[in-house]
Structures are given as C-alpha cells and as structure tokens.
Predict the 3D structure of the following.
Amino acid sequence: MRAYSVTVPDRQVSPALAEAAYDLLVEMAAASPGADARRDFLRSALRPGGCEYRFQGSLGFGGKYRDEGEGAPYVSCYPEDRNASRDATLAAVNSRLGELFAGAA
C-alpha cells in the first residue's frame, strides 16, 4: 500500500492531530492498526499541502482519507462500493473528522 500527497492549499497538520485522525480511522473505519500503516499515514498527513491516503478498511479498496487543506478532511470510497453500511460509516467518520479539525488552521 502506497501513500502519496497532492499539492493543495496548505494547512500544516500537527503530529497530535494526525495521530488522532488515524486513531479515528482505526476505530470507526477499520483502518489497519499496524505500526507500518500508521507510519505511512503520518508521513503523508504531515506533509505540507494536504494528502490523499488510501487506507481501505471497512470502506473497501477505494477507502481514502483526503485532506484538501481547506475545511475538514474527509473519507470517501468508490461510488460503486457504496451501500447503506458504508454510507453510515462515511457519515459518522466525516462528522467526527469535522469535530476533530474544527478550528484547525
């Protein structure tokens, strides 16, 4: 699994905030709890300019965390993989990410 960043308006995410975001993905969206996956996520999330990180988990192969530098980061999945359960996961995780990043500059 490879993580990569895309250039977007910059918001520098603190290590503590990135850790909390990954904890949320593990808890709510079944992201891998392994140290390697966490390290890859943190490496991607802490780069200036936002990130797009494929974590898969309960959202399937297309499960991604996206931080576009403005507003709260969010999770998404492939449209063809959406169902009632995944839609509920998307809504719950995105709500919590919104709370977590409220006020982050």
Residues 47 and 91 are 26 Å apart (CA to CA). Residues 15-101 form one domain. The chain has a mean pLDDT of 89. Helices lie at 15-29, 35-45, 84-101.
